[in-house]
Amino acid sequence: MINRVWDQVLSEYLAQSDFQRLLRKIKKIEDLTPQYSQIFQAFKLTDFDEVKVVILGQDPYHNPGQAMGLAFSVPSNCKVPPSLQNILKEVGANCGKSQITDGDLTIWAKQGVFLLNSMLTVSLHQPGSHSKLGWEDFTDFVIHKLSEQKSGLVFMLWGKFAQSKQRLIDSSKHLVLKSSHPSPLAAYRGFLGCEHFVKCNQYLDQKIIW
Q1: Does residue 140 have an active-site annotation?
Q2: Annotated catalytic residue: which of 7, 47, 49, 59?
Q3: Which end of the chain, N or C, is less surrounded by CB atoms within 10 Å?
Q4: CA 77, CA 103: separation in Å to the nearest integer?
Q5: How do residues 44-89 score in pLDDT, each as one tens digit?
Q6: What is the DSSP string of 85-136?
Q7: What pLDDT band is residue 25 in, cutting at 50, 70 and 90?
Q8: Where on the phi/psi map is residue 72: left (φ > 0), alpha (ψ -120 to 50), or beta?
């Protein structure tokens, strides 16, 4: 359904009747975003074996044309949302000029940054509208499997919601970086100046893609 390696890692969950029921329900939603073919885009662009960094979002952007299946990312023809503006500002402060010139983070995804929303879909103009459908059980399972089966990952947890997922991560074998959320309401309470991208690069001992 996603790709060979992810399907193997997640096979016990993908086969569950509740998950199959969730997919059938999602297919019937007319104002779904992102479009059905992009729901698992993060998995398609960042294979399990290639994951180096996990950035966790809450749910997709809810305005038309914004959501593309990658947390915090928007297509290149979209205005860069405020949270992403602050993310890119912090990247620039940490690492100099970024490879990202617009809001499309596909290049990060292709180089090992797993951009995972906890809820993979939303209804247009209704933030949080799919929070009770069962997505969070699935993505919690994904985070647990990443923590369990890999080592040396960097998990970036921004804001209280993302930080609530720390319980799923074995911090003895992964680096967990926490700060306030990059949204304009919270960015100046700890996100800007957190130096997460510098700390990430130092931990991975290589210059990655910021």
Answers
A1: no
A2: 59
A3: N
A4: 8
A5: 999 999 999 999 999 999 999 999 999 999 999 999 999 999 999 9
A6: HHHHHHHHHHHSS-S--SS--HHHHHTTEEEEESS--EETTBTTTTTTTTHH
A7: very high
A8: left
